[in-house]
Amino acid sequence: MTAISTGTLLEDVAITHLQKNNLLILHRNFRCKTGEIDVIAKDQSYLVFIEVRYRANDLHGSAAESVTKTKQQNISRTAQFYIQTRRWAQNVNCRFDVVAISGAVESPKIEWIKDAFNE
Questions:
Q1: Which candidate among 35, 48, 53, 75 keeps its CA 20 to 30 Å from the CA of 119?
Q2: What is the pLDDT of residues 4-55, one digit of tens each?
Q3: Domains in the chain, please, with CATH?
């Protein structure tokens, strides 16, 4: 399995998990000149920008720890572009979540961290 196919499979796992928790998926792999956001969803009154990260093991840090300050800044800039280009999103509360996936691809452990950039 290639890194891209593993990433796609695990994004599917993350999206299924989010949908089971009543999130409405709006976009997947939103890209613009400032970067990419893996998943954009609605959670009740929140517009949620979600980064999906995977680590098979913790040898180089956990999946959640791999979302560095630089990565957070890139996601924030991309979210600003998304909001600015969609009038309906301009007065909506937003948050940044991380879905950290670890372990074997066949039986992954999922950790959903809400409002992850404020921790």
A1: 35
A2: 687 888 999 999 999 999 999 999 999 999 999 999 999 999 999 999 999 9
A3: 3-63+94-118 (3.40.1350.10)
